[in-house]
Write a structure and sequence with these properties.
single chain, about 240 residues, alpha+beta, Beta-Lactamase, 2 domains, 4-stranded antiparallel beta sheet
Length: about 240
């Protein structure tokens, strides 16, 4: 392939990936809107049990296959709930395909405490004030795998804040990428703003790894992924020089 052909392939692939991930935010929006209703209905502060009203929606969102999302949920700031300073109502799709509540260690004094409130996926949407794509990153102490999370904030009364998000199914993303590029040569990769490889068609660039400087120097073509979402718009598709 010549440079023009590679550029066109990356452009078309970027458009497909950008549209697919942007569309996945529709599910996050659904959960955000429903969570807003649940958390503002009734007298007094909501409790952890209030989130049971979201369970049917979580199951509905995670049921279709193939599915861009493998996890969906809500995480609260301190002061939102009457019975807990920290809470993650997060559901994940298991190997069987069924969605279930993902239990995290949220007691600061307990072994394995998952301090989600300090994590970039939680802080970023609150700081930006809108939709953000965070990752890929190793969710150590959480799901303990490399993942990418689509997140947005939900502002409640009295300045109380909640984060709503969905975890991308990286296998789905890889399959979508490989189908779009349709070839193993030249070496192509989707790279995030943190220089971590999201997916690629080559063993030279494994998912989650940082792109080494040597391979950065070999980049022949680079095309941004079109998106209105902060974080995703700084993702780029790269093609390495054929040797």
């Amino acid at each position: 392939m010549d440079r023009a052909e590679v550029t066109d392939l990356l452009r078309r692939t970027g458009e497909e990936l950008g549209s697919a991930v942007d569309a996945a935010f529709d599910a996050v929006e659904l959960v955000r809107d429903r969570a807003a209703q649940v958390l503002t209905t009734g007298r007094g502060a909501p409790s952890t049990s209030s989130f049971s009203a979201l369970h049917p929606l979580f199951q509905q969102v995670l049921a279709p296959e193939p599915n861009p999302l493998e996890g969906i949920g809500v995480a609260v700031c301190t002061g939102v709930l009457a019975d807990a300073d920290r809470w993650m109502e997060w559901w994940r799709r298991g190997p069987s395909g069924r969605a279930a509540f993902a239990k995290y260690v949220l007691d600061p004094s307990a072994l394995g405490f998952y301090d989600y409130q300090s994590r970039p996926w939680f802080r970023a949407p609150l700081e930006v004030g809108g939709q953000v794509v965070v990752g890929p990153y190793l969710d150590a102490g959480g799901c303990d795998v490399y993942t990418t999370t689509l997140v947005e904030p939900l502002l409640l009364a009295e300045g109380k804040e909640v984060v709503v998000g969905g975890d991308l199914d990286m296998a789905w993303l890889e399959a979508t990428f490989l189908r779009a590029v349709g070839r193993r040569s030249p070496a192509l990769a989707l790279v995030a703003s943190n220089d971590r490889v999201v997916v690629s068609n080559t063993a030279l660039l494994t998912s989650g790894s940082r792109m080494p400087q040597q391979l950065k120097d070999d980049v022949q073509v680079e095309v941004a992924v079109p998106s209105a979402v902060p974080g995703l718009s700084s993702w780029r598709l790269v093609a390495l020089e054929q040797r």
